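Open question from group meeting: does this chain pack into something compact, or does most of it stay loose? Before anyone orders reagents, we agreed to write out a predicted structure and look at it together. Recording both the input and the output here so the notebook holds the full record.
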Amino acid sequence: MAGGAVGTQEVDVLIVGAGISGIGAAYHVKTMCPNRTFAVIEGRDQLGGTWDLFRYPGVRSDSDMHTLGYRFKPWTSRKAIADGPSILAYLRETVEEFDLARHISYGLHVERADWSSAEGCWTVTARRGDGDRVQYRCTYLFMCTGYYRYSKGFEAEIPGLGNFAGTVVHPQFWPQNLDYAGKRVVVIGSGATAMTIVPSMAATAAHVTMLQRSPTYVVARPDVDSVAEMLRKFLPAKVAYRLVRFKNTTMQQYFYKRMRAYPQQAKDRLMGFVREAVGGVIDVDTHFNPTYFPWDQRLCLLPNGDLFEALKAGTASIVTDTIRTVDARGIELNSGSRIDADLIVTATGLHLVTLGEVDFYKDGEAIDFAKTWTYKGMSYSGVPNLATSFGYINASWTLRADLTCEYVCRVLNHMEAVGATVCTPTLREGEESMPQKPWVDGFTPGYMNRVMHLMPKQGDREPWLNPQDYKRDIDLFRKSPVDDGVMRFTSRVPA
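Structure tokens returned:
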């Protein structure tokens, strides 16, 4: 095709995205819904999503791989906190092992999705790199595009940055073969990305300074799970993996709920751990004492305490201050101090989006997801035959992605069993006036606050909840009836 021509393909289920969520979705549809045809379309030229996109030094998971890995495919490598290339290899193995590659098409950027009540299907329009367009018609649309813009990272307003004579890099677009050996580096930010980059660059840079406006809670833990190592010696890989996964999910949920229930106690314990690690070297109260309580924002994981080790070695340092301006040689701070630099890394965060920057329409009318209610944190009131995969803020992404995939397949199988063609989450009588909560409640980082007004509302009762609770979600997704009086199944096209 050329000159903007459109070709159309038809499948039962269209999965958008070939990252960790989309690959998991493909596996589940193939194995749980064998009578359904499906396709996966990916905007980039390779699979992997996050784990192929990010190439900055030290890129790694910030969750253990026994919970970030799939339920159906054991993680068998020694390191539980794994580097990006190892995770990408795991995803490629998954695609090969379950023969998913033939279902994936690359280089297709989805621009628009149109639901037709008259036809009972979605028409999805995607653009190739050369400008040509392809259309897919599908009964069910499963969006697995993640939560941030791939084409653009979040760029905080940094006064004078254009004056800098050195190199400026955003982690999302790390230049291949960037040479920073022997150079003075400033990493702006204090999130997971910054705390990954700093100790990695410090190994070869002249010095790395992490410049933060405010501190973040940090937790150090080994990158090898000793229990997993022991169990793998005596048990089959799948059994060992299940046991470690249960252990880790149980511990994650326990400590999260404990911290939320006793925030001051949790804060004191976390601060005590940091003082024990670097109290003699770093002013802990200045640089590691946030103004908020734990899990108001995410905690940052330090495998083997690598950031602490770099600080103690003197190859890295932390400055807590705000930027007055950037000049040709470095950064002037509002305290009157300055940091000279050869390279500035703007680890200022991600640019979050809803449903992959796709324009959605229902019978010709634009869908405003902010006016909808979330159904189990995966679908939207009044929007037929649509699901999205979105992980946890307090646990590994894949835990929820797996549950969402299982539920979508339960819905698809129920539709087949009863002869339904359309499923639509529908408010029950009186629920239009139920109390509203944000889509993610009680979580305050800037990157979420910037987009929360674009997200669906959360109610005060099931299934209009997004509880961020793995144990509760197991019941909500695996055990609750599919035909729950809210998800409306019809064999005729609704008016």
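Observations to bring back to the group:
The chain has two domains: 6-151+352-490, 161-225+269-346.
The longest strand covers residues 6-16.
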